[in-house]
């Protein structure tokens, strides 16, 4: 899916996917997985799936749409067992289709397994060649990993009883890019986090079982107690006897995606042991110190701009008020086919509170801008509602580089800050002033500045090398000053 076709959410980075797994002797595991995926719905809205083992068979059910659309009580009641994994998807590699939905299932001889993936791999071409999968037959990089695991299981070299952990241990070190996996067979639940730890994964304890999930609120939803975050490069293997840990990589190097703190994760999530909501408030505080404004009120772009706006208001002393009302019944999958319809889509989702806005000098706080279309529509909306001034404050640095590890922002030509100067950005958005939070202040605001972050989308420093053919396709579409022109302000205004 390209940014051009995504509707009213093109102002934001695309989420990574959400994964969940549970093992418990007395638990209704399918229902628990449904609840866990519901708590992770913000990480992907294109498809949802659940795989369940009853000790003899592995059954997979998946469908397009939201978790609540893919499953009902009748379907969940039929999924009996004591182990389950689930996935809610946003596509980054592969199409938005049922064939690309997860979990992926394979049966090899008398073995069955399923796996689900959060992230994006950058070496799929060489992996596909190794797997013998022809171009056009790979629905996603997750499908490719499932095939590689199946090939290992077919080799008859696996130790009896631990076949799936053994096969994963042989395949996973070959992967390059961003990945967190949940996997299962008839007896095991397995959670894996890549050596850079781009995408989060945590472990929780039930009274009679264990849970792994992308974010800690999913543990709360099913009544599990947070144990700890899965370490970068770690594989956790859970069975009826408990869990054991195995480090798959010699030198794991933590590089959690900084946008997990900025935007992706729920505010009640714990990352590096820090509460995300508090970190976002600190981002607003840092922004107020860095870029103060003379204004009458501070207002957020809901929902994601709220904590930073609270922090900005508290530090600046400027009153905090709501200026926009969000229609909670407009989903992230709303599709608008044209520029005009996208502008109407913003109005469907957000509406100004004229009483709070009219005649006021506003500080408008949001967490990020990717392409700027939505932000521009919001500024126009506030002006039409009578705002005297609009000062934009963004609680992350300018987004200038595409991500290759699991979130989708299109090519560099589609990133506003990569192609325009700060003054051109201000002019295009129609604001009186604009300021982005500096990178060092952002990292400090997380509360874990030395823990390790990937900031490639902000500074172009990619922790995992990008193959030349992929980089050329995504980065090469941005022309440098010695070639063709950047996208100009006038072109952007015309929607070109």
Describe the fold and architecture.
With 496 residues, the chain is of the alpha+beta class. It has 2 domains: 3-254, Aminohydrolase, N-terminal nucleophile (Ntn) domain (Glutamine Phosphoribosylpyrophosphate, subunit 1, domain 1, 4-Layer Sandwich), CATH 3.60.20; 276-451 and 478-493, Rossmann fold (3-Layer(aba) Sandwich), CATH 3.40.50. It is 31% helix and 24% strand. It has 19 helices and 23 strands. A hairpin with a 4-residue loop joins β2 (47-53) and β3. α9 packs across α10 (306-316). The relative contact order is 0.12.
Helix and strand topology:
Blueprint: E1 18-24, H1 29-39, E2 47-53, E3 58-64, H2 67-70, H3 73-78, E4 83-89, E5 104-108, E6 111-121, H4 124-131, H5 141-153, H6 163-171, E7 177-184, E8 189-193, E9 202-206, E10 209-213, H7 216-221, E11 225-229, E12 234-239, E13 242-247, E14 256-257, H8 259-264, E15 270-271, E16 274-275, H9 276-290, E17 297-300, H10 306-316, E18 324-326, H11 339-349, E19 350-352, H12 354-357, E20 361-366, H13 373-384, E21 389-394, H14 416-419, H15 422-429, E22 433-436, H16 439-445, E23 453-454, H17 456-459, H18 468-475, H19 489-493
Parallel strand pairs: 14-23, 17-20, 20-21, 21-22
Antiparallel strand pairs: 1-4, 1-10, 2-3, 2-4, 5-6, 6-7, 7-8, 8-12, 9-10, 9-11, 12-13, 15-16, 18-19
Helix pairs in contact: 4-5, 5-6, 9-10, 11-13
């Amino acid at each position: 899916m390209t940014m051009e076709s995504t509707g009213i959410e093109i102002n934001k980075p695309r989420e990574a996917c959400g994964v969940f797994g549970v093992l418990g002797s007395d638990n209704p595991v399918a229902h628990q997985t449904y609840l866990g995926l519901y708590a992770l719905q913000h990480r992907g809205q294109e498809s949802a799936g659940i795989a369940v083992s009853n000790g003899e068979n592995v059954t997979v059910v998946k469908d397009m749409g939201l978790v609540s659309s893919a499953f009902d009580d009748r379907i969940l009641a039929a999924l009996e067992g004591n182990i389950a994994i689930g996935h809610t998807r946003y596509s980054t590699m592969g199409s938005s289709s049922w064939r690309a939905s997860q979990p992926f299932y394979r049966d090899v001889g008398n073995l069955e397994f399923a796996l689900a993936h959060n992230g994006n791999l950058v070496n799929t071409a060489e992996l596909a060649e190794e797997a013998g999968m022809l171009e056009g037959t790979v629905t996603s990089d997750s499908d490719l990993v499932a095939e590689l695991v199946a090939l290992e299981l077919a080799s008859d070299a696996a130790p009896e009883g631990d076949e799936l952990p053994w096969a994963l241990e042989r395949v996973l070190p070959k992967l390059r890019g961003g990945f967190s996996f949940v996997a299962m067979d008839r007896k095991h639940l397995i959670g894996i986090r890549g050596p850079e730890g781009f995408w989060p994964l945590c472990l929780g304890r039930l009274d009679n079982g264990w849970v792994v999930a992308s974010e800690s609120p999913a543990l709360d939803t099913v009544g599990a107690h947070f144990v700890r975050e899965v370490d970068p490069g770690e594989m956790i293997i859970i069975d009826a006897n408990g869990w054991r840990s195995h480090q798959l990589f010699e030198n794991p190097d933590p590089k959690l995606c900084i946008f997990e703190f900025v935007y992706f994760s729920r505010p009640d999530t714990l990352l590096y042991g820090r509460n995300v909501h508090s970190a976002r408030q600190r981002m607003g505080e840092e922004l107020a110190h860095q870029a103060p404004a003379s204004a009458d009120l501070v207002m957020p772009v809901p929902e994601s701009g709220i904590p930073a706006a609270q922090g900005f208001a508290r530090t600046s002393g400027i009153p905090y008020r709501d200026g926009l009302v969000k229609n909670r019944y407009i989903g992230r999958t709303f599709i608008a086919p044209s520029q005009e319809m996208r502008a109407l889509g913003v109005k469907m989702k957000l509406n100004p509170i004229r009483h709070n806005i009219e005649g006021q000098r506003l500080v408008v706080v949001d967490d990020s801008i990717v392409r700027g279309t939505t932000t521009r529509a919001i500024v126009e909306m506030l002006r039409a509602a009578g705002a005297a001034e609009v000062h934009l404050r963004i609680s992350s640095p300018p987004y200038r580089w595409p991500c290759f590890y699991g979130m989708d922002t299109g090519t560099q030509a589609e990133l506003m800050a990569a192609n325009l100067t700060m003054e051109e950005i201000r002019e295009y958005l129609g604001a009186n002033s604009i300021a982005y939070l500096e990178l060092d202040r952002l990292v400090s605001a997380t509360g874990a500045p030395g823990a390790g972050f990937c900031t490639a989308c902000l500074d172009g420093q990619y922790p995992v090398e990008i193959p030349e053919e992929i980089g050329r396709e995504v980065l090469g579409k941005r022309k440098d000053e010695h070639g063709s022109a950047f996208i100009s302000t006038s072109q952007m205004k015309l929607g070109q």
